Predict the structure.
Amino acid sequence: MLPYVIINDENCQNRNILTTPAEDVAFPLSEEDHKIIELITYQFRHEENCAGLAAPQIGFSKRIIIFSVPEEVQEYRVDATSVIPETLLINPVFKPIGNQKTLDWETCFSVSDYGGEIERYTHIYYEGFDINGNKIEGEAAGFAARLIQHEIDHINGCLYIHLLKPEARQGKLEEIRAIRQAEFAAKKEIYATNQD
């Protein structure tokens, strides 16, 4: 497992990689790009509670992300309505579908011990390429849309903390975990009612 690049750790020497747009990946993939994909895939599969990762988080300025929405996410995310298998995207982009945004909590392996509520588009179209240069495209809503936007932001040099509004609820992980647990049941009930 590689150490994460952490923006709020003064001892982390390559933090600027997190705020610099990553380089496009050319096809066919180079040996170096194959190695980065191998490393990010390994990290993703072996990290506990990992919904997504971007190459800059493990020290590589490349436009590569990996994510999934497993069924168990529905246990703590009311808007995790679709299951997405492990997906690796190269040079991904997204476009909002409509203007609706949703406010919800986010945390990140590249932001130590902190979380906050961020507004993101509720429904998006996304596209990217697989390792063979084949185009992958789709639509995502709810948590999946949030996750994809979060990871694509990473390769654009933007972290969720850059989107935090001053009035947004935010704080240390232990504090927000308690808030989220207290609100989850009520939020789940409201969400279910709105879907009817």
